[in-house]
Write a structure and sequence with these properties.
about 45% strand, 1 helix, alpha+beta, globular
Amino acid sequence: MTQKLITLVNGIEEVSEVELLCAFEILELENKYIIYTKNEKDNSGNTIIYAGKIIEENDKQYLVNIEDGIEWDKIKEIMKRMAKYNTEVAVNANAA
C-alpha cells in the first residue's frame, strides 16, 4: 500500500510530516475529518493514530481538535470499521 504523506504546521510554525490514513466527511454534521499517524508505537507495539476536524477559513484549511462527544462517537465508529476492514483484508491476503 502506498503511503500518502501530508505536512501539518502547528500554531508556532513547527512542521510535521504525517501519514494520512483516511479523509472523509460526515454529511449530517457538515464537517470534514482526517485520520493520520506519525508512525509512533504505544507500549503494546500498536501504531498510534490521531483524528482531527478540518475547518476552512480565508481559503486555508486548519486541523482542529474534536471536542464534541457526538463527533467523537462517530469518528470512533469509523476507526473501528477501518480496523476491522484492515484485519479482514490481511486475513484474506494470507489465505490466498
